[in-house]
Amino acid sequence: MKSDRLLSILLLLQTRGRVPAHELADRLEVSVRTIYRDIEALSASGVPVYAERGRHGGIELLAGFRTDVTGLTADESRALFILAAQGAHAALGLDAALGSALRKVMAALPAPHRPAADVTSRRILVDATRWRSGPQQAVDLEVLQEAVFSDRRLKLRYRHSGEQEPRTYTVDPYGLVAKAGVWYLVADRRGAPRLFRADRVRSARLLDDPVRRRTGVELGDVWEVLRRQVEERPEDGIDVTIRIRRERLDMFRRMATGQLTELPDDDGEGDWVTARLSYPVLRAVRQLLAFSDQVEVLDPPEARAELLRAVRSVTALYQGAARVEG
């Protein structure tokens, strides 16, 4: 609707200052010609808005003009109170601020929409974390967040999956992304996009150097590239079902966190607990040999065969060494 579009334009200009017409057109999915017609409509209604042509031009409100806009629709009011990614605000230290902001929004809502917004906040809950995703390590986002907002470079000590020792990187951060309950730092390293899981950052230090981002590239652009790289990666992995003796369950959780995809709750009954894991390649299932006869692979057959090959290889190695020593 045109009225919604005019309100969106007013809010964007009030928040962003000068905005190029083509950017408004892209955001609102209309033509540039339509944007200029909307600007004329706003001007005719008394809003002090003007457009400047040229390379550095754009559309802007008269300096100092502000308006309190409370013309939210019923659906928009309800949408504000469905809080996606529960826990994300706490990780950023913004839980109290969020509660305060929502109370202010509730007070500013048109009276007919307040009951629906209140019911929505009490009846709808969005939890973005996965079921039985394994124990999550505490994440300290303070330094990462400071680098993102102060536009400074970061020096990280970062441990990759499957490696014992961390590596050192100097990166140019674009921002933080919460994906399925996991925080990621999106950054460039030597001009190339990289993704760093926040719970694998062993230390982070702010540098005095200003961030060196690629011109015209925003967080959403880099995230889209990285997201597609992950999602379009060939599906060469293997899912494995095992059973593990209950007395080794705690140690198993700690050692196999990165591979666990499902671990039933420990109900304290029986000697064995069934779990499911995912490995990038078949050979990686040899990790389970560290648990000796405390872990048994149930499925698939090729995973059992791979472990048998590994055991035979180790046996042959030591039998050969014993013959030499004899």
How is this fold's topology laid out?
Elements: H1 2-16, H2 21-28, H3 32-44, E1 49-52, E2 58-61, H4 74-80, H5 88-91, H6 95-108, H7 114-123, H8 142-150, E3 152-158, E4 167-179, E5 182-189, E6 192-197, E7 201-210, H9 219-231, E8 238-245, H10 249-255, E9 260-262, E10 272-279, E11 295-299, H11 301-325
Antiparallel strand pairs: 1-2, 3-4, 3-7, 4-5, 5-6, 8-10, 8-11, 9-10
Helix pairs in contact: 1-3, 2-3, 4-7
What can you tell me about this protein's structure?
With 326 residues, the protein is an alpha+beta fold. It is 38% helix and 23% strand. It has 11 helices and 11 strands. It has helices at residues 2-16, 21-28, 32-44, 74-80, 88-91, 95-108, 114-123, 142-150, 219-231, 249-255, 301-325; strands spanning 49-52, 58-61, 152-158, 167-179, 182-189, 192-197, 201-210, 238-245, 260-262, 272-279, 295-299. The chain has a 5-stranded antiparallel β-sheet, with helices on both faces. It has a 4-stranded antiparallel β-sheet with strand order 9-10-8-11. A two-stranded antiparallel sheet has the order 1-2. Strand 3 and strand 4 (167-179) form a beta hairpin. Helix 1 packs across helix 3 (32-44) and helix 4 packs parallel to helix 7 (114-123). The longest helix is centred in the last third of the chain and has 25 residues, at 301-325. The mean pLDDT is 79.
